Write a sequence for this structure.
């Protein structure tokens, strides 16, 4: 057997006294983790420390579980030596054992404890949880500690924190398995700055309580602005005076004074206290206030256009500093004055806020939550001040300079004096170069209040009148988009220069051409003007006036062409180039076509011509494109400079409303809005508020996608957002406080998302909390400039406080975190009473023992419950409803307990209330019964002449003459097996009667007499005597032999017979024709016939004594055959015909008759082939009403073809004797009524239908062959004149009684039929008479699909919809008919009944249906009518306890009656 050794615990043992020079190791022998049935051993060592020999005596342990293994208990040990003994431990039980081992030295004794311990747990836990330095941002931080079990038995632990700080320990209790560990999470919410040094009590099994120390240092997340020079806090930046159009740049340090990184963004505040926008602080107040137009302009000014900050967003690491560049670029706001002057000074005082980016509350803040994220230090405000000044340059002699006229090659000069009227800033200028004019000096600088002399010269280079604008550029420091400043022109001033350059004249002399054509010639090459290339004006020649001459009109050729070009006499004299094939030329005077020479060696091919034309088209399009671009830029410039100095006091878009945009225009607007976003443009609170308002108006509550699907969405959601863009996405509130909730309850809070960006964004909630996993989805694609809310569903299975946080991302960029808070409590219900006594409610037999018990839910969430009855041996007669259900928070629910009275119903019962995830309660129920007395009205029941095999019923009446309801039970032990009494048990009402139905089904003909005992609960047992006699049925069938001779295929032959009951009791006769499919029975009187759909070929009937019934057996063969069989007959469920056959075949002597007997019915039949074939046997004639004419009768005809298929002559006859006057009046006509057909001969018979008036006519005409009285075939004639008809669905309108003033509507489907032409439907609504004789119109009819009935050739018309409404302000009840009629005077009735009043008994169905939509107010007073109510509409359903409709109405009736 394998043994385990306990690990010894070495411990230096001190000698009990100094005289004992002996050391024993170990000082305590401990066997750990021992099990019963095993053997353990540990050594013990004895060391002699003395200087002489020692005699040692060992004494055995007292308990048998310990044993010292040593051969001799007395030992002598020399000085300095040691010896080892073995202690053996063999436990017999799983329990701890304690003993001791005694070692004696002389008269001194050393005690060595012996301990045997069963397996136990050894739990260890860390003593401290240190969260370190945290930021107070309401984020939940989690630390994990391990509880280790080093023992070999499971151990329990329990952790409890009783402080007030947001610290949660989970799990708070549990079991640690052997040689394993359990992770315990400690959650801490850093909601506010503090130094945390808390303790949590931890109870470990087998160890004293341990105090778990929880430490943390929570600090604020602080953003600071520091000065560049000395790192002091910066509160204001003064830009000083700056020209409009120039820029001033300052710098500062942004410092993250916290241990965690932070995303920040700069926001310009609008409408802040102390803000100044373009106000001249040196101007008088009354003057400034009177300029209302200017005040309205500066109020709507966008301050981000002249105040900028780079960077204005970013991420700061812990304790990081970055340089922020601020730029002030003022813009001049025109206030209606025409010229610039010092009054245009504009002073600015603005406030710029730097704040962190994350989850924001705004209007979504939860005021009930005590845990708020302190954002006092998460933002810093900076004041910016500056002054914008206009350019004040004065020119002397003015801005219009008139130079003296001069000739070409000469010049004229003027002196212009420029004066800088600004006393604050110098002006740098530069003159742009202008043709024919020169400025000296072209550029320079004018100090404050100084002047500059400028010489302007006019040096013309051509003749003409000159009016030009001289551009003067004002140069200053201008910052670009990255706030890099440089000297650039920022302002332009125009001077008007005017002068004239006079031309010099020269005489032109004509000269003859000697014969050699110069470079430039006239069309004839005869005269040349000298110096002609120097001038643009050419001398007029004859070619220019050739089109107006009429000199050669008499020679004009007929081949003259339109659009032809004029050919010069020698224009192609020296050219070898081929002419253009598409150009036509004519002579100057005769206008005849000129011969166009085409040289194939030099002419263009078709491909070359196409290529040349393509090149020309390309350049033509290019030139047009350049022109359109140039025109568009010119229009933009005109719009830019279209503002003039005239102020008419009109505010932009004042009183105008923008039209609603379509989805396409919205998408285009949003796409265009993306292009307008500047990366360095500051956010401002006004734009953010307007975007937020716009997004809130555009709520998207359905159809949100979890992933982007379209290319546009995928592109937007893949963009990396900046902190400035993330700041325009609001996700809040930052604290989701679910409050006090029940365990495993589903709670919902709304997390709002507002997207102010003009693009799609993807919101991802990084939730790994099991309590929030029932949320519908965790990712949403939010449309541009839209808002929505996310229903966060919280459900926790653990009781206790809950503090957790989760983060969210915007386009996969961290956006912040949300704190989730809750206090989870167990579900609990309370009973109004633990015991309920039930008494009868009223005297009606239907009134049961009833009582109510209340369920009270004092928790915040609904509680699901279920009643479980306790079933005993005697059964359970109590019932409770609702048996299960839900109790709403902070409400109650009444449960109705009823006792089902009966003879065997137990009077006591119990119900166990099981609350889902909650407590369990027991309800005891007791029914209070009284004594009673019951008697029979007739103590004897007689069954005389009862039929054998059939059931006969009699009635016995019980009379309750006691003072309480009586409950009875039939004792079956005393009854005959043929007697049955129903009901077997029941109730007899107080003073009432109960009928007992007694049935007797005898199987033997005899007389009987018996007694039935009836037991009455809490009363005596009464007897009922039952007796009677049983008779055998006697039935006769005449005739009982049926011979069908010569029946044709397809024909039907019927043979009549009579069934007669000759006995003195009832008889049931049954014929079985299941094996004979062509045979059937028909009874003249259907009252006694019994049919079973499962067995249609079995015919049964009952006959009273002494009665008879006429019957017939029908034979309808479908093929040629012969039949010879017998039909078995059953009487009173006895096989009477089979028993009769057995009785006749047996040779036994005459025995008494014990069962009904009857001869079988014999059938013989012969089937003949049909000699005549008919084309059709059914003829249907349909005729529309509108073609019916009394003067000119309309006839419809169909043909019947008879064909003799036999080899013999067939004589046929149509018998119309049974059709009444149909043929006499000419409704139906048949051309031939009889005839003879030879073999294979056909006969065509015409059947006509000619009606007199609208109706439906039918006629059945039998066909007889060869004087055979049997009908061969039956012709069915149907003729119908289809008249228009209206069918209503439903056919009768019954309005549920409604209260006064309440409108009720019913939809009616009008189904027109037989309308072959269009017709218009009209309605006549009758009036209703009130109780006082007045007439009102409570009914109204509306046809939403129109009143026109569309005609159809087939007579099948489309349905119409009718809305019939009823409403009355006075009590009324009526039954009337609404009349519908068409334009052909066809009238149709729709019955309608309706009632309106405020009596509760009348409007009970309406109240039961609309209980959740109406409020019932009961009025008491002399001026009100008793029993009347006032119904008011409810704005919203109540959220208290759920009552059933019957319970609620019962509650109302209790208060009324």
């Amino acid at each position: 057997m394998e043994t385990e050794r306990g690990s010894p615990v070495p411990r230096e043992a001190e000698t009990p006294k100094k005289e004992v020079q002996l050391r024993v190791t170990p000082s305590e022998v401990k066997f750990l983790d021992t099990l019963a049935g095993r053997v353990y051993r540990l050594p013990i060592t004895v060391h002699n420390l003395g200087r002489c020999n020692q005699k040692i005596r060992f004494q055995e342990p007292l308990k048998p579980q310990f044993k010292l293994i040593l051969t001799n208990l007395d030992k002598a040990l020399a000085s300095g030596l040691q010896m080892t003994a073995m202690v053996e431990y063999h436990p017999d039980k799983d329990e701890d054992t304690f003993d001791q081992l005694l070692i004696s030295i002389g008269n001194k004794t050393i005690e060595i404890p012996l301990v045997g311990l069963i397996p136990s747990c050894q739990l260890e836990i860390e003593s401290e949880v240190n969260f370190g330095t945290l930021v107070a941002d309401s984020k939940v931080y989690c630390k994990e500690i391990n509880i280790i079990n080093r023992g070999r038995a499971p151990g329990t632990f329990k952790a409890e924190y009783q402080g007030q700080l947001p610290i949660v320990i989970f799990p708070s209790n549990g079991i640690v398995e052997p040689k394993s560990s359990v992770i315990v999470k400690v959650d801490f919410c850093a909601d506010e700055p503090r130094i945390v040094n808390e303790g949590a009590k931890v109870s470990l099994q087998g160890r004293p309580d341990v105090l778990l120390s929880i430490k943390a240092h929570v600090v604020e997340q602080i953003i600071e602005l520091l000065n560049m020079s000395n790192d002091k806090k910066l509160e204001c930046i003064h830009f000083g005076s700056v020209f409009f159009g120039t820029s001033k740049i300052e710098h500062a340090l942004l410092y993250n004074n916290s241990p965690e990184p932070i995303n920040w963004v700069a926001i310009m505040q609008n409408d802040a206290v102390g803000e100044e926008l373009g106000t001249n602080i040196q101007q008088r107040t009354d003057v400034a206030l009177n300029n209302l137009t200017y005040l309205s302009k500066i109020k709507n000014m966008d301050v981000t256009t002249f105040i900028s900050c780079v960077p204005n967003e970013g991420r700061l690491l812990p304790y990081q500093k970055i340089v922020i560049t601020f730029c002030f670029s003022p813009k001049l706001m025109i206030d209606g004055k025409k010229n610039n002057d010092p009054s245009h000074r504009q002073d600015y005082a603005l406030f710029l806020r730097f704040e962190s980016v994350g989850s924001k509350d705004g209007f979504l803040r939860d005021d009930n939550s005590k845990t708020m994220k302190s954002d006092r230090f998460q933002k810093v405000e900076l004041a910016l001040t500056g002054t914008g000044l206009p350019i004040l340059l004065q020119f002397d002699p003015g801005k219009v300079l008139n130079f003296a006229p001069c000739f070409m090659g000469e010049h004229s000069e003027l002196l212009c004096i420029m004066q800088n009227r600004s006393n604050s800033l110098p002006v740098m200028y530069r003159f742009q170069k202008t043709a024919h004019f020169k400025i000296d000096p072209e550029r320079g600088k004018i100090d404050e209040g100084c002047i500059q002399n400028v010489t302007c010269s006019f040096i013309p280079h051509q003749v003409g009148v000159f009016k030009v604008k001289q551009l003067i550029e004002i140069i200053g420091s201008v910052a670009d988009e990255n706030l890099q400043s440089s000297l650039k022109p920022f302002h332009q001033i125009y001077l008007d220069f005017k002068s004239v350059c006079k031309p010099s004249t020269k005489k032109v002399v004509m000269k003859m051409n000697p014969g050699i054509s110069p470079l430039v010639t006239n069309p004839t090459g005869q005269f040349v003007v000298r110096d002609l290339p120097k001038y643009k004006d050419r001398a007029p020649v004859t070619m220019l006036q050739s089109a107006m001459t009429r000199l050669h009109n008499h020679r004009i050729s007929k081949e003259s062409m339109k659009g032809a070009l004029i050919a010069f006499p020698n224009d192609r004299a020296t050219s070898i180039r081929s002419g253009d094939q598409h150009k036509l030329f004519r002579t100057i005077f005769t206008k005849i076509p000129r011969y166009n020479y085409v040289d194939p060696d030099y002419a263009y091919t078709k491909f070359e011509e196409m290529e040349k034309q393509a090149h020309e088209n390309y350049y033509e399009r290019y030139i047009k494109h350049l022109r359109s671009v140039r025109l568009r830029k010119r229009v933009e410039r005109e719009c830019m400079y279209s503002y003039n100095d005239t102020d008419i006091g009109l505010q932009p878009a004042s009183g105008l409303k923008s039209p609603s945009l379509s989805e396409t225009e919205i998408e285009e607007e949003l796409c265009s809005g993306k292009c307008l976003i500047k990366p360095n443009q500051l956010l401002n609170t006004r734009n953010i508020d307007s975007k937020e308002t716009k997004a809130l108006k555009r709520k998207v509550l359905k159809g949100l996608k979890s992933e982007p699907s379209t290319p546009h969405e995928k592109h937007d959601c893949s963009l990396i957002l900046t902190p400035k863009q993330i700041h325009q996405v609001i996700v809040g509130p930052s604290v989701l406080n679910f409050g006090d909730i029940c365990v495993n309850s589903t709670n919902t809070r709304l997390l709002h998302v507002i997207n102010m960006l003009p693009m799609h964004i993807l919101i991802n909630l990084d939730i790994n909390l099991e309590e929030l996993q029932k949320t519908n989805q965790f990712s949403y694609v939010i449309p541009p400039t839209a808002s929505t809310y996310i229903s966060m569903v919280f459900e926790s299975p653990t009781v206790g406080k809950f503090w957790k946080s989760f983060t969210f991302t915007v386009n996969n960029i961290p956006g912040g975190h949300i704190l989730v808070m809750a206090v989870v409590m167990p579900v609990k219900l309370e009973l109004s009473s633990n015991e309920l006594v039930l008494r009868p409610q009223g005297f009606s037999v239907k009134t049961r023992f009833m009582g109510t018990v209340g369920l009270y839910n004092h928790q915040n969430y609904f509680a699901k419950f279920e009643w479980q009855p306790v079933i005993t041996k005697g059964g359970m007669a109590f019932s409770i409803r609702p048996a299960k259900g839900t109790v709403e928070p902070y409400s109650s629910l009444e449960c109705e307990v009823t006792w089902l009275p009966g003879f065997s119903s137990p009077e006591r019962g119990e119900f166990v209330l099981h609350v889902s995830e909650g407590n369990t309660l027991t309800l005891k129920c007791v029914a209070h019964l009284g004594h009673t007395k019951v008697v029979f009205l007739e103590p004897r029941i007689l069954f005389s002449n009862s039929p054998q095999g059939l059931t006969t019923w009699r009635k016995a009446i019980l009379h309750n003459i006691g003072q309480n309801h009586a409950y009875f039970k039939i004792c079956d032990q005393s009854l005959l097996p043929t007697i049955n009494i129903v009901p077997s048990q029941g109730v007899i009402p107080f003073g009432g009667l109960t009928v007992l139905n007694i049935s007797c089904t005898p199987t033997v003909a005899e007389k009987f007499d018996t007694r039935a005992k009836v037991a009455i609960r809490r009363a005596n047992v009464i007897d009922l005597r039952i007796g009677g006699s049983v008779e055998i049925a006697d039935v006769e069938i005449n005739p009982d032999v049926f011979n069908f001779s010569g029946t044709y295929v397809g024909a039907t032959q019927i043979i009549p017979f009579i069934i007669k009951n000759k006995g003195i009791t009832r008889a049931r006769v049954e014929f079985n024709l299941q094996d004979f499919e062509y045979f059937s029975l028909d009874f003249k009187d259907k009252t006694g016939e019994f049919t079973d759909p499962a067995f249609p070929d079995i015919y049964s009937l009952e006959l009273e004594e002494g009665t008879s019934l006429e019957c017939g057996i029908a034979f309808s063969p479908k093929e040629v055959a012969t039949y010879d069989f017998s039909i078995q007959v059953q009487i009173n469920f006895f096989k009477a015909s089979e028993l009769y056959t057995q009785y006749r075949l047996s040779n036994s002597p005459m025995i008494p008759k014990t069962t009904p007997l009857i001869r079988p019915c014999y059938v013989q039949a012969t089937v003949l082939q049909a000699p005549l074939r008919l084309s059709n046997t059914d003829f249907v004639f349909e005729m529309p009403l509108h073609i019916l004419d009394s003067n000119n009768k309309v006839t419809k005809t169909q043909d019947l073809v008879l064909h003799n298929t036999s080899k013999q002559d067939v004589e046929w006859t149509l018998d119309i004797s049974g059709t009444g006057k149909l043929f006499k009046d000419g409704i139906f006509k048949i051309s031939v009524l009889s005839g003879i057909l030879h073999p294979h001969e056909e006969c065509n018979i015409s059947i006509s239908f000619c009606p007199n008036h609208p109706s439906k006519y039918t006629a059945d005409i039998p066909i007889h062959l060869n004087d055979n009285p049997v009908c061969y075939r039956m012709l069915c004639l149907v003729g119908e004149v289809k008249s228009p008809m209206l069918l209503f669905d439903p056919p009768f309108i019954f309005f549920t009684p409604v209260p006064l003033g309440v409108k009720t509507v019913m939809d009616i489907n009008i189904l027109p039929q037989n309308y072959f032409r269009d017709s218009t439907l009209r309605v006549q609504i009758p009036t209703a008479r009130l109780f006082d004789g007045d007439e009102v119109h409570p009914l109204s009819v509306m046809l939403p699909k129109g009143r026109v009935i569309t005609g159809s050739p087939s007579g099948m018309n489309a349905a119409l919809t009718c809305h019939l409404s009823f409403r009355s302000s006075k009590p009324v009840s009526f039954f009337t008919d609404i009349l519908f009629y068409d334009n052909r005077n066809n009238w149709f009735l729709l019955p309608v009944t309706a009632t309106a009043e405020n009596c509760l008994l009348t409007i009970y169905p309406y109240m039961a249906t609309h209980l959740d939509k109406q409020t019932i107010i009961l009025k008491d007073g002399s001026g009100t009518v008793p029993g009347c109510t006032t119904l008011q509409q409810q704005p919203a359903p109540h959220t208290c306890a759920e009552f059933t409709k019957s319970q609620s109405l019962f509650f109302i009736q209790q208060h009324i009656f």
